[in-house]
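Bench notes, bay 3.
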Amino acid sequence: MKDYQCYLFDADGTLMDTMDLIYQCFKNTTQHYVNKVFDRATVLSYVGLPFLEQLEKLIGKQSDQKAEEILKFHKEYQLSIYQNYLKLYPYVKDTLIELKNKNKKLGVISSREHRTLDLFLKQFDIFHLFDIVLSPSDCARPKPHPDPVLLALQKLSIYPTEALFVGDAVFDLDCGKAAGVDTALVSWSHLILDELNNPPTWLLKNFHQLITLE
């Protein structure tokens, strides 16, 4: 059994089921600004990137002023509907509590901005379980660069060999591997394991499997 001292988690699609929320928000935003609705698979394929990078993938690069306007519009809509779509995946809270009781260091590394990231984690009463919560504003280069994981390890005084990064997107796997940590892919990800160039160390059938990885 592999016993890690630190568990780092992506948020959207890993801890929280926000896929419907993300799709509804991008559907509303792109329809409003370019009168186009993208299919769900296309939108969700960019989950894990910061918002402005997701937006650029869908509708092209915007001026700084326009991007700021779109971001504000997107955020306001998201905050108006999130309670109708937000769910925690099974076993997440109980497993986090169990890991915490084992004196493990816990962290979140997300591409979501702190305003909604912290709000959503607090919504499920799990924010206080994490020793560190990082969003793109906390480092110069967000996922898939290794910087967020390296920053978390530095602040938590953890060696890469002692840590596991759990995510649902290729950006999570690339980030973790580049930082030298083991990775775990959740089985409810949209990714197909056999098609990955960078396969994870572990595939999680459910969240509680983290307690007994072998």
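Next record in the batch:
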Amino acid sequence: MRINKQERFRQLATFANVVKNPQELHGVWKQDCFANEHPITLELGCGKGEYTLELAQRNPERNYIGIDLKGARLWVAARRALALGLTNVRFIRMNIEVINTVFTAGEVDEIWIPFPDPFSKKPNRRLISPRYLGYYRDIVHTSAIIHFKTDDDGLFHNSLQTLEEEKCPIHQVIADIYKEPETSEILKIKTTFELKHLASEKKIKYISFSLGNG
């Protein structure tokens, strides 16, 4: 039976793996939420949580948090995580713009940004923009790696330019991950959006980088 959005929102509020007041865990996620000292990985704009769920299953020694504003998609992710019995996964329904009210300096060890909106007419809202890189700088550990995937040529090239202008160390650039003979299996985890892009014969691009000193 298909569950409508309002029912999904109601159920989402009851899921144990969805954090209702994330600001209360500012600075104490490892201790008070996960009860361990494992590294924290964020998936920004996680949607149905494909990366969060797959990575959490592969790496039980890490903690994963999926963040998205759209509750209906987040319901899918949280429900799957509960069905899989994943204890190292949490989800937050929130705007990424307030991320530094939820995490403190150095608290996040890794970020995944798979297939964000390119915002072709609103560059300041791109998740790889000076504005958002500033948010990430507020919360990541100095050694943190940020992973970015997109099918959009313009966003890919704009992101590279932005990272260079912001003096962010770039570790890897792949223009077509499925043509690269030594592509990591982790990069081949397919989100709902990626499957659609591949069906349209689009090239999937990838950048990994850190933030440096800005």
